[in-house]
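user: can you give me the structure for this one chain? tokens are fine.
assistant: on it. calling the predictor now.
[tool input]
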Amino acid sequence: MLTISQLAAYAGVTVRAVRHYHQIGLLPEPERDRSGYRRYGAHAVVSLVKIATLADAGVPLAEIAELLEADDATFAAAVRRIDARIRDEIARLERSRDSVEQLAAGDAMLLPPEVVEYLDRLRALGISGPVLEGERDGWVIMAARWPDRVREWMPGKLASLEDPRIVRLYQVLSRLFTEEPDEPLMVEAADLMASLAEEAYEQGYNTQQESQEDEVPFDLLELLALETDPRAQRMVELMRERGWAGWTRLERVAPLG
């Protein structure tokens, strides 16, 4: 005859687990001997091993009692269900593992390769911190809405990095959002953006088609900037003073003031 500690050790479980199985009626609790100790026989060992095996296989404790009393055919059917459940869980974990591996790949998980190339070019230019993160998150928003159109835009975006004004704009924005507030830098950034917007607009490019089709991505871009740093609100005001809807839409508005 075994003590509760010996029984638990034999089946590879804890004494606490044995007591829990007693409490929920899964394992019959034997009478105490004259010394006040519970003593367990061979049937208790067999029952506990079965319970522990089923529990380790992921069978809910509420279902184990029924399985312990099942005939061979019923038990075999239950085992098949358990096997199917385990296979599904393995498949889910493998998908999760793939996702983790993709996360380790960084931007490539969320963005088309053309956008990843663009972000890599920005890094090569020394752009980092909140501006690079904001650029990436902005493209995540746009690519989720217009994946094919984003790919069409990227050759032009890559070519634009040959323009020293655009490189300067990124550099100024990087300083703005990593240093103390600086009104002259904000004005310089707004002047650069307004100048580039004017040039693009004269060449026939604007975002009205996309924004009329779906304003939400542009609203989200504006919100993204404001959520990232409150100084973005000042940039919006400066752009409106120069006659533009903001820094995410190439749309004219009546200049403030």
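assistant: here you go. The first helix runs from residue 4 to 11. Residues 244 and 252 are 5 Å apart (CA to CA).
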